[in-house]
Amino acid sequence: MNPNKPLLKQFSAACERNRDPILAQLSIHFSHTQRVLEIGSGTGQHAVYFAQHLPHLMWQTSDRIAYHPSIEAWLEEAKLRNVLPPLELDVAQPDQWPTASFDAAFTANTCHIMAWEEVAQMLVHLARCLEELGLFVIYGPFKYSGAFTSDSNADFDHSLRQQASHMGIRDIEQITLLAQDSGLTLLHDLDMPANNRLLVFQKTTNKT
């Protein structure tokens, strides 16, 4: 990194709140993994925190280019050997997906921000990056059969759709079907604080 480049570190209160419950689950499910691709690293907070506490992992950050300054700032400050500079990744662009393979992937609070078509593309391309039996962990709010799990999630969904019509909380059943089409099987659907879920998928076929 350029030492003369000004730091543009951004802070997310949500990342601060949810990092420990997520870490508790990643410590279990990523205990035997080595290379993790984070999709949508955002501010960079999660990458640094998880890499600090899971030193056996090599954590690869990624996001659209506009988010790179903050990710790089967090990485520059932390100076960790097991977290890598961000890749430019727009999930809908096939040529931006890494050619390297990973035995795990993680994304937090992205599915309700992406357009549904982008969620579908993420699952297709991510499955191709995962090694056989590799894990994909998704954190965030979800619906079941179209029903919200709380009034606060319903309010959140309304605010998202007011911001942009393509955003909104997704149905777990629809995510699971898309994942199955890409050879990803849902292993765990875990309850998390603040009406969130943690979904753990595993790549079980070579169909992609």
From TrEMBL:
Originating organism: Undibacterium nitidum
Signal peptide: none
SUPFAM superfamilies assigned: S-adenosyl-L-methionine-dependent methyltransferases
Pfam annotation, one family: DUF938
Name of protein: DUF938 domain-containing protein
CDD domains referenced in this protein's UniProt entry, alphabetically: AdoMet_MTases (cd02440)
InterPro entries: DUF938, SAM-dependent_MTases_sf
